[in-house]
Design a protein that fits this description.
Its EC number is 4.2.1.41. One of its GO terms (molecular function) is 5-dehydro-4-deoxyglucarate dehydratase activity. The chain has 12 helices and 8 strands. With 317 residues, the protein is an alpha/beta fold. Strands 3-4-5-6-7 form a 5-stranded parallel sheet, sandwiched between helices. Strand 4, helix 5 and strand 5 form a beta-alpha-beta unit. The longest helix has 19 residues. The protein is globular. The structure holds 2,3-dihydroxy-5-OXO-hexanedioate. The site of 2,3-dihydroxy-5-OXO-hexanedioate (GLR) has 12 residues, from strand 8.
Length: 317
């Protein structure tokens, strides 16, 4: 067995499965100071509040955490701080990415920092055929002992045949989906071996969470948890309890308008979330270029929407 870590792969899968039933998956923002430098003290304090809301697992340095803006040293600091703050309470799944050579370096760092698993973010720039997508995971898996979760989004999209192939790679334990093509996704779940993990990783995943759950994928990432764990928690509970009226109320009053705002400007997927966290008093700082912070008009809409959402769940602004 090549995989020997603090937790075995089976234990990590079990901890993830258990966590997924208890709360949303937290994708924390990364805190930057006024000059754009990494602000670890603020990150730790923010993360502590994220964890106090009892997410099922924490995924540092992923899309929401601006993985693509971090250098290796900063990445190490963020993952190390996350493992320390989490203190074993929830599994830590660190983002890794780019081509397999660089992704393997990030995996090595995440492993040394004590992460439990890694989320393989989509490569960028070039499109790749299925054989290449599978080979990318084979190459990374051959170079790390960390269990890997593949992330299909953007130009990464697996066929049922490729899913069978990646699930057979030693160390690949699951798939996070960001395409929301439920027809295709159902074919993937049917092709997967028993125990393979699936996550709904759509942008503002709550919007389609009920639909994903009907095809056997109840676990989802929540960008809303990154700034309003109270709203994300209320939605999770309503969905879990089958309270459809409450789910509709939160979708109608908060999530759908949020998606409309989030879709307005490229990069708002992250920068709007960061702005919302600042409105909550979190010292997360601004986004790094090429992302840009929302302008005054959109901030005013966001502030109102946040107040509505918090009011819907009886939480203070
Ligand atoms: O990589 C990431 O940060 C994600 O995919 C998680 C986000 O929470 C995603 O679900 C979103 O943007 O709503």
């Amino acid at each position: 067995m090549r995989r020997q870590h603090l937790h075995t792969e089976t234990e990590t899968v079990e901890r993830l499965r258990e966590g997924m039933g208890l709360g949303v998956l937290s994708f924390p923002l990364t805190s930057f100071g006024a000059g754009g430098e990494l602000d670890l003290d603020s990150y730790r304090a923010y993360l502590e509040r994220q964890l106090a809301a009892c997410p099922g697992a924490v995924f540092p340095a992923c899309g929401t955490g601006e993985f693509f803006s971090l250098d290796e040293e900063e990445y190490r600091a963020v993952v190390t701080a996350t493992v320390e703050v989490a203190g074993g309470r929830v599994p830590v799944v660190a983002g890794i990415g780019y081509g397999w050579a660089q992704a393997s370096r990030f995996a090595r760092i995440a492993e040394e920092a004590g992460a439990d698993a890694a989320l393989v973010l989509p490569h960028y720039l070039v499109a790749a055929p299925q054989d290449g997508l599978v080979a990318q995971l084979e190459q990374i898996a051959a170079r790390t002992r960390l269990p890997l979760i593949a992330y299909q989004r953007g130009q990464v999209s697996f066929t049922a045949d490729s899913l069978r192939r990646i699930a057979a790679i030693d160390g690949v334990i699951g798939l996070k989906d960001g395409h929301s093509d439920l027809d295709r996704l159902q074919r993937l779940t049917l092709a997967a071996p028993e125990g393979f993990l699936f996550f709904n990783g759509a942008s503002t995943a709550e919007i389609q969470a009920r639909a994903y759950a009907t095809i056997g994928i109840p676990a989802y990432s929540s960008a809303v948890h990154a700034f309003a764990p109270e709203i994300a928690g209320a939605f999770f509970t309503a969905l879990r309890d089958g309270d459809n009226a409450r789910v509709d109320e939160l979708l109608r009053g908060f999530y759908v308008p949020l998606v409309e705002l989030r879709d307005r400007v490229p990069g708002y997927a992250v920068s709007l979330v960061k702005a919302a966290a600042r409105l909550r008093g979190e010292r997360v700082g601004r986004v790094r270029a090429p992302l840009t912070d929302p302008g005054a008009d959109d901030l005013a809409v966001l502030e109102k929407l946040l107040a509505t959402g918090l009011d819907l769940v009886g939480a203070a602004v």
